[in-house]
Design brief:
Length: about 240
């Protein structure tokens, strides 16, 4: 099927002048209505001659085909509505590509949180395995040995900010029972805070009044760390 003819600017101006000069008021109004309709069809690429275009060509035109006019310029056969929908689709693709890096970072954060928890759990086992109350009690700041491993004095410990890692795991696919995980995590953090406080008490050797011996504070701290180890095993069973 040949391309449909398109009215040139000169033809349109000539027709408009003829309507103004020769037609009466009624015919003039009808003529301008017809002219407006022709211009509307022309601008939207839907002229009366497109009735002879095959279905295949129209379907193709909805995607990439451009219509070549005799006067040298090209016009898309897409209707304004389809152009608008394509703009929305393009925006959605751009938005998805912009969001995907954030999703990748979130996945990396979840994996990092799980790795941190596994290292933290192992550090508790190592702390109890190497626990030495007598040796640490003889030091001025013997309790700090425990506090460093608990992540309260040093950022290198996997237990440093472990509560943040637990919160990330809580909302991840690695945990099925969120409620139970939250409750157990709270128990773990409470035991950690108590162990840290008791270890800090082991450093207090000066001042007036009767004080708890450092060895006693360290032993009490050890009991809390043993509790942490027990709770950590429950958490390990919850994290896939």
């Amino acid at each position: 099927t040949s391309n449909p003819p398109s009215p040139s600017n000169q033809s349109i101006q000539r027709l408009s002048t003829m309507i103004m000069i020769t037609a009466g008021p009624t015919i003039r109004a009808a003529g301008f209505a017809l002219l407006s309709f022709i211009l509307y069809c022309h601008c939207n690429g839907v002229t009366a001659w497109q009735g002879g275009i095959s279905y295949h060509r129209v379907a193709k035109a909805t995607t990439t085909e451009l219509y070549s006019h005799p006067n040298g310029y090209t016009e898309s056969l897409l209707s304004p509505r389809r152009q608008f929908l394509l703009q929305i689709a393009g925006t959605a693709v751009i938005s998805a590509s912009a969001v995907s890096p954030h999703r990748a970072n979130a996945a990396a954060t979840v994996n990092s949180a799980r790795d941190q928890w596994r290292l933290a759990s192992s550090s508790i086992d190592d702390l109890l395995k190497n626990w030495s109350t007598d040796e640490w009690a003889e030091k001025t700041s013997g309790g700090d040995v425990v506090r460093v491993i608990l992540g309260r004095l040093d950022t290198s410990s996997p237990l440093f900010q472990i509560e943040k890692a637990l919160k990330i795991l809580r909302d991840s696919e690695f945990v099925d029972d969120e409620i139970e995980f939250v409750e157990t995590s709270e128990e773990f953090m409470d035991a950690l805070y108590r162990a840290d406080s008791l270890a800090a008490d082991a450093n207090l050797k000066t001042g007036s009044g009767k004080q708890t011996p450092p060895a006693v504070s360290l032993e009490n701290a050890k009991k809390e760390v043993v509790g942490m180890q027990s709770i950590a095993k429950k958490l390990n069973a919850m994290v896939k």
